[in-house]
Specification:
Elements (H helix, E strand, L loop, with lengths): L6 H15 L8 E6 L4 E7 L4 E7 L3 H6 L6 H17 L6 E3 L8 H11 L5
Parallel strand pairs: 1-4
Antiparallel strand pairs: 1-2, 2-3
Helix pairs in contact: 3-4
């Protein structure tokens, strides 16, 4: 029998290939996105020292209060604006987008577009 890799294994392999191409620096940190079945998480990371500079997720009370559901496109878009505003407050304007091995459509694309509209450049 032919063994088919699980979607999770495929995503992790894609993410490793993506991470080989770029990493976040102090001047241009990495905007890493993770999506589970119930929530979304976004972090801005400086990979040279391994620090998370800014983070936001749909688990936070102030984010959860503004959205109806935590796992749809509207929630992803709102999370994109939240992470962008927090980054701007810290003085971060330019980032490298790390989609985490997920396909760039739906929730991931909504988060990216909302972050761009809120002022982040990538």
């Amino acid at each position: 029998m032919v063994r088919k890799e699980s979607r999770q294994e495929v995503r992790v392999k894609k993410h490793k290939r993506i991470r080989n191409r770029f990493s976040g620096t102090a001047e241009r940190p990495r905007l890493a996105v993770f999506r589970s079945n119930n929530h979304m998480y976004a972090q801005i990371i400086d990979d040279t020292v391994g620090n998370t500079l800014v983070a936001a997720s749909t688990l936070e009370k102030e984010v959860k209060a503004e959205i109806e559901k935590t796992n749809n496109v509207d929630a992803a878009a709102y999370l994109g604006t939240v992470i962008a505003k927090r980054a701007m407050e810290k003085g971060i304007t330019e980032v490298v987008f790390d989609r985490g091995g997920f396909i760039y459509q739906g929730k991931i694309a909504a988060l990216a577009e909302a972050a761009r509209e809120a002022g982040l450049q990538f």
